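Support case: user asked for a sample of complex input and structure output to validate their parser. Sending the pair below.
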Amino acid sequence: MRDVTIVGIGQTEVGEHWERSLRDIAVDAVLAALGDAGLEHADALYVGNMLGGALSGQQHLGALVADYAGLRGIEAATIEAACGSGGAAVRQGYLAVASGLLDSVIVCGVEKMTEETEAETAAALTMAGDAEYETIHGPSFVSLNALLMRRYMYEFGCEREDFAGFAINAHRNAVNNPNAMYRRPITAEIFGRAPMLSDPISLMDSSPNADGAAALVLVATERAHDLGHDPVRIAASAAGSDSVAIHDRRDPLFLAAAHRSAAEAYRQAGVEPKDIDLFELHDAFTILAAMSLEACGFAKKGEGVRLAKDGEIGLDGRIPISTMGGLKARGNPAGATGVYQIVEVVQQLRGQAGKNQLPDCRRGMAQNIGGTGATAITHILEAGS
Amino acid sequence: MRDVTIVGIGQTEVGEHWERSLRDIAVDAVLAALGDAGLEHADALYVGNMLGGALSGQQHLGALVADYAGLRGIEAATIEAACGSGGAAVRQGYLAVASGLLDSVIVCGVEKMTEETEAETAAALTMAGDAEYETIHGPSFVSLNALLMRRYMYEFGCEREDFAGFAINAHRNAVNNPNAMYRRPITAEIFGRAPMLSDPISLMDSSPNADGAAALVLVATERAHDLGHDPVRIAASAAGSDSVAIHDRRDPLFLAAAHRSAAEAYRQAGVEPKDIDLFELHDAFTILAAMSLEACGFAKKGEGVRLAKDGEIGLDGRIPISTMGGLKARGNPAGATGVYQIVEVVQQLRGQAGKNQLPDCRRGMAQNIGGTGATAITHILEAGS
């Protein structure tokens, strides 16, 4: 295998793009990433997407986006792993370049979640769960996560308010991200009186459905030196899985796939959690943020929630998370989210994170989760090439 | 990169499996392939699927199938490129093993198309076309292909009957394939009086929607020698794209993506069309068989249909196609079809094709097409490792 470097990033604002279609925003991100890389072409395009079929009546996005981005003819495919689709697409792009068969791959995560009613969107999202044995009984994707949060509170003796720090941190960081969906800070009081979606998950525990597209250009590291941009090396790429249904897991409060893929990523990069300067984790719900921190070795079991309480996740904390707003406040365009996470780590490593720039930032981790934890893809990025 | 070898194949019968769900038939194929390889595990599972969301309300098939196949924990994702999903998944499996990062990958193509009404299934299939500029105007996937066939007949001066040879050949070969959906021969007379679906495409020009799953086990070639089975080497793997909408193509009668991926595959394998002993092409419609033969260099433009008339595509012909029944008679479970094609090439190269066994078969090609030609993935396989 050969090393792989990110030489271009692009993203659209996350929000409600009623005047732009699925392909339109994907093309915007792809062209932005190519422009950033100073390239006009690539060998392949992999699109991360979950809901194109269900909400836009459009599958076959690989060829479609390639064509509309002016790349007609190149290899193209869609990669899907529910809300982990973006990270899974980056993983396939990484493998393709590492193989030596492709010199450059564009990865684009795209989702359009405001095309249909909220009820239809919620119904579509349940396809991330087990249709025959889990979601057939009626739970929405929010209520599946609410089961986890309730159990976590029971097992580890904590309250709803203990999770507030995750949402407050995310919203604080989103203020300075021009692409974030909700660029306003919230307080503990706002968190406390947020309307309940599925007890104990409130509006402020939950990331918003959104439209958005983000893209990366990956090239073989030996080629990155010829390109003008601050290169960022992919030091590790790993994926793991778990049962799709929560009830099939030995311990529903342990994200086994997240643990497995993080452990493998640490091994590949030769690092430990203490060596990670920032962690873009999958805070689709505050409970997932807590459990991700535990699964990846940043907190002991049942203590992930404490990091939010103690402020260790802030920009000046021990392990900064959601540095550009996270899923919670940047917004969570399902199949695009995993690519946004990596774009944001690249921004930090390049020193392009604006007012949210971390000092001495050399190594960042991004972890994208599908479903309630059945898929997890972890990447570790390092400045330089 | 390193070489990649197929050491295991598995398939379910193609047909209507009302008593088995999407995951059930996928698991059947995966376990059959692992058993055939003499393996109990692999590093990853890539699932080729198009319609799980639309027809079974189930996405996130990678993790789901991995779990139910007893492989919980491994890397898993779904690859989608409309009806080219199976071939696209094989392509990703090939890249992953070639990269050196994964030693073994299971690729499973699966589709369940008899879950909903035929109208719903037909509507779901239109998502392979361009939703905003093509299928919004009402054409079904059959009628899009009917436009191609009508134009072909006009341009090259041929009649409906000229296409009969493709269907007759496919049905003749399916008789001896225990996994084929329609195991009975047809005559020119039956072809001639078949009910019209979308003029000029009749029932006998069109492949049937079906349920089915097929799987492969890919390993690094250096490891294949340790395994007991007749190895089959992937000598070439290539993918190309074209506009999704037919009306966007400079020449709608030329399958540019098929041509591009075949040309690249010939280059990789160092061969020409005359060196190919069999060609499992994408005969979703007889017109696609004719155009595929032309795009891949087996016939000049407008002359692909002549190969069927002259009998050159039979088991004893110049270029045998659809040797186990093809999409037409084995059946066309959309996202699974590309894996079935490769399983069947492996059967021929191993000498396991039963009464349809080709003599002296050393090198076979499989080409899977998505949409009306917007995606094409071509693999060339060779006996030995």
